Amino acid sequence: MPRTLEGMTCVDLTQNVAGPYCTQLLGDFGATVIKIERPRVGDDARRFFPFWQNESTAFLTYNRNKKSVCVDLDHPRGREIVHRLAAKADIFVHSMKPGSAESRGLGYEDLSRENPRLVYGSISGFGDKGPLKELPGYDPLAQAYSGIISVNGHPGSAPARVVVPIVDVGSGMWLFIGILAALFERVSTGRGAKVAGSLLETGVVWTSLLMTAYQANGEVPGPIGSASPAAAPYEAFETSDSWILIAAGNDRLFAKLCRLLDVPELPQDPRFKSNGERVPRRHELHKILEHETKRRTTDEWIRRMREAGIPAGPINKLDKVFRDEQVNALGMFPAVPSAFRIPDLKLVDIAVSINDQKSAKNQMPPLLGEHTEEVLRSAGYSDAELKVFRDEGITN
Fold first, then answer.
1. Does position 348 have pLDDT exceeding 90, yes or no?
2. Candidates 3.40.50.170, 3.10.50.40, 3.30.1540.10, 3.10.580.10; correct CATH number of 234-315?
3. Which has the closest alpha carbon to 148: 209, 85, 89, 88?
4. Which of 49, 155, 225, 248 supports an S-S bond with 257, CB 3.0-4.6 Å?
C-alpha cells in the first residue's frame, strides 16, 4: 500500500481499544505514531486477558506500528515534553474524559496556539457536550445505552452484548475518518482542526437502519436472533449436522431457494409472495424452510446453493476462519516480520487494499517505554536531561 501518511507524526495519548485502533490505522497508512504511556504502568490494555508470552493479546491487537514513550502527564516537565512533541506533530489524539486534557494544558486551544497546523482528535465515552459528558465510557456501556444490546440475541433471552468490541473499533474508525478529512482540508486552508468522536455516537450510528424503521412504523425493535428486520428469509437454518446462513434477500432469490428446497409453490402463496408479506410472517416461513434444510448436511446445501446462485454460507468458528483459504487469499493474517518476541504472531490486517496492497507497515507492537530515549533525543533533549527525567520518574 502507498504510505499515504508517510512523513506525518502523530502524538498518541490514547489507551484501551477505541483510541489505539484509530492511531494504529494512522500507523498502518504510514504515519509515525508516538504512543505516550504512563511510566511503569502503561496502557491499561497491557493487562487485559489473555496473555501470550507475558504480553496482552489486546495490546498486541491494537498497537502495531507505534513507538512507546513513557511520560508522566501529572508532572509539569512531563507535560512540557508532550508540548514539545506536539509542536512538531501533524496529529494529536487523546482518549481522556472531556476537560481532562484541558486541565493539563493539553487542550486543542493550548496546542494549536503553538502549532496551528495540528489536527487534534479526541475520543470519549459520551461526547464532549451534554449532561453525561464527564462519564467514563466503555464498549458494553455504549452498546447498552445506544440500544444495540436491546436488539441483540434471541427473543426472551438475557441481554447479550455483541462480543466483539464493535463500538470501540467503530469509534476508532470514525475518528480516523475525521482526521483524514481534517488533513485533506488542511491542504487548502493551512490550518488544522479539532475532531471529536464518542462511543455513544458510534453506537447510535450502528442502529441507523432500525432507528429509521422505528420512526416509520412506531414499533420498538427487539432481538430477533440471526434474522434481518428488513428481509426474509435472511437468517440461520438448522441442517442435518449443523447450521447454515441463507440470505435470500429478494423475491427472485426466494423463488430460486424454494425450487432448490422442493417447495416451489411458496412464492405463489399469498402469505409469502413478496418480501413485504414474508417479513411479518418470518417465524411461520422459517419452520417451513427449516423442515427442508434439515434433510441435508451444511456442506451439501452450501454446494447446491452456490451452484444455484443463492447466497448462503457456513457459520464458522474462529479456528476455521484463521485457516480458511478465502480469508488467507485476501491476506488477512500476515506474519509480523519483526515479531522476534512472539515468532508466530499474525495480526489481523486492515480490511482495504490499494493497488492490491494492504497496510504500509507491519511492525511489532512496542514494549512499554521501548522508544522513550530515541524519541526524546530526536526532540532535542540531551542525555543529561534524559537522566534527570529518569531519576525523577518523569519517564521510565
1. yes
2. 3.30.1540.10
3. 209
4. 248
Q: Is 262 a residue of the active site?
A: no
- Predicted confidence (pLDDT) per residue in 217-271, tens digit: 999 999 999 999 999 999 999 999 999 999 999 999 999 999 999 999 999 999 9
Nearest-angstrom CA–CA distance, 265 and 271: 11
Environment class of residue 105 by beta-carbon count within 10 Å: exposed (0-12), middle (13-18) or buried (19+)?
middle
User: How far is the C-alpha of 75 from the C-alpha of 379, rounded, in Å?
Assistant: 18
Amino acid at 114: E
Work out whether strand 194-198 and strand 234-238 pair parallel, antiparallel, or are unpaired: unpaired
Q: The sheet that has 312-314: what strands, in order across it? A: 234-238, 243-247, 312-314
- What is the residue type of 54? N
Determine whether 304 is exposed, middle or buried from the number of CB atoms within 10 Å of its CB (0-12, 13-18, 19+).
Answer: middle
The percentage of residues in the chain with a pLDDT greater than 70, rounded to a whole number, is: 99
Q: Which of 168, 299, 319, 356 is catalytic?
A: 168
Could you tell me the residue ranges of all domains in the chain? 9-206+331-391, 234-315
pTM listed for this prediction: 0.95
In terms of CATH, what superfamily is 9-206+331-391?
Crotonobetainyl-coa:carnitine coa-transferase; domain 1 (3.40.50.10540)
Contacts for 50 with CB less than 8 Å, ≥ 6 apart: 56, 57
pLDDT the model gives residue 339: 78
Q: Please list the residues that pair with 346 across neighbouring strands.
A: 335
Report whether pLDDT(364) > 80: yes
Cell 493487562 belongs to 47
The per-residue DSSP string of 299-341 comes to HHHHHHHHHHT--EEE---HHHHHH-HHHHHTT-S-B-TT-SS
